[in-house]
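Recall from the previous lesson that a structure prediction takes nothing but the amino acid sequence as input. Here we apply that procedure to receptor protein serine/threonine kinase from Cervus elaphus. The sequence below is the only information supplied.
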Amino acid sequence: VIGRGRYGAVYKGSLDERPVAVKVFSFANRQNFINEKNIYRVPLMEHDNIARFIVGDERVTADGRMEYLLVMEYYPNGSLCKYLSLHTSDWVSSCRLAHSVTRGLAYLHTELPRGDHYKPAISHRDLNSRNVLVKNDGTCVISDFGLSMKLTGNRLVRPGEEDNAAISEVGTIRYMAPEVLEGAVNLRDCESALKQVDMYALGLIYWEIFMRCTDLFPGESVPEYQMAFQTEVGNHPTFEDMQVLVSREKQRPKFPEAWKENSLAVRSLKETIEDCWDQDAEAR
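The prediction returns the following tokens.
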């Protein structure tokens, strides 16, 4: 077992003598399996910064239950969350991590009509450092599309998700944008609104990456890895904890003293992060 997620376990396996990751869903999570498989099968989904899907399958377990398998490329470094907890990085390497997640998300969000092929714009809806994997070259891929949604093309809403709450109130509590916590996602412009929710989470991921950057803590030790808001709400925040912190009090993870120096790079970094996690979704 190399990981456990909301929908089941991830195992390391081998297929034609090469290592693969196998994500196993129980019958109860069949809808997430179907959704994730359908997202990976969207035309033109192959991209350097999106996890590589190999095949989806279903089988009956020894005790007669159905389970569903997604076979993916294996990324030995594991999640960005795990990677950051084990490694610090210099400025260039930190930028490489951040830039590659950004490229993956930008590609996901882009509608591409190319000849006979059509890739809709897609929102991830559960972007966080556990759902980003690190490749051997120090760049990232985005994975875990079980909650993702096509935003353009003929089928906007997933079956059974016609109600607004199901569209807007999903994701990992720690990374939920203020408008998601308030139940106030602007569904009149669903495409922009759901992209803005992803952008908020991206800002938190940037903070996590650069808080482990050696060059941003000159002459002092880099702080231990923390998930966004870990100082404020610990390891298991409730929905209400995040509502108070993010929506009502408008708090965000703190920039450290070491980032007070006024170099252009640090200033640009802070401005970029603040633009991503802006309280006003339209401003992101």
